[in-house]
Amino acid sequence: MAMTQSSNPASLSPVPAVPAAADLTHFDAEGRAVMVDVGAKAETARRARATGRITMQPATLARIRAGAFAKGDVIGIARLAAIMAAKRTSDLIPLCHPLPLTRVEAEFDLDDADHSVGCTVVAETVGRTGVEMEALAAVSVGLLTIYDMCKAIDRGMSMSGIALLEKSGGRSGRWQRPDASATDAGEVRP
């Protein structure tokens, strides 16, 4: 249902306030998109960990576990895709800085109880900006690769829960997702 303009201001639904351009780092004072200037920031060790999950039919998960796909090792290829995505994040997300990654690790877990594959990625660098986008892009592309490799037998797969679990480094220091369980917390290295 479209909202129409009315001459009676009381009839309009309240509109949430839009943050000022100063609150959004990727916009200048006129609201134009800009790449954040990180030149004055100190280089620090930075780390981010992200996660996500793809749910599928039980038979699809069984074939992944058995390695029974003509296209090859689904998890092995998804791992490489995740690592490649982290390396190419600045090519995918327009305002991301290209980063010299020092480490990217992608882990996958197969869960028979809910017929899903989870992906957790850790990305690290020493630099002037964080690696959250690299970790999130890696998880997304890793899961999309599983979808691509299995879609011939299961087009109903769905991805969910793609989220940053934690980050460390930089001026803002350490952040951990409030709803992350103790088993998700992991150790953050400096």
Task: Describe this structure as you would to a colleague.
- There is one protein chain.
- This protein is an alpha+beta fold.
- Helix content is 26%, strand content 25%.
- It has five helices and five strands.
- A five-stranded antiparallel beta sheet has the order 2-3-1-4-5, covered by helices on one side.
- The protein is elongated and about 50 Å long.
- The protein starts with 43 loop residues before the first strand and ends in a 5-residue tail after the last helix.
Query: Biggest sheet, in brief?
Result: 5 strands, antiparallel
Unreliable stretches (pLDDT < 50, length at least 5) are 1-11, 182-190
Tell me roughly what share of residues is in helical segments: 25-40%
Q: How much is the radius of gyration in Å?
A: 20 Å
* Strand percent estimate: 25-35%
Count of individual beta strands: 5
Q: Tally the helices: what do you get?
A: 5
Helix-strand category: alpha+beta
Quote the average pLDDT.
Answer: 83
Q: Spell the H/E element sequence.
A: EHHHEEHEEH
* Terminal CA distance: 50 Å
Query: Within the largest sheet, what's the order of strands?
Result: 2-3-1-4-5
Silhouette: elongated
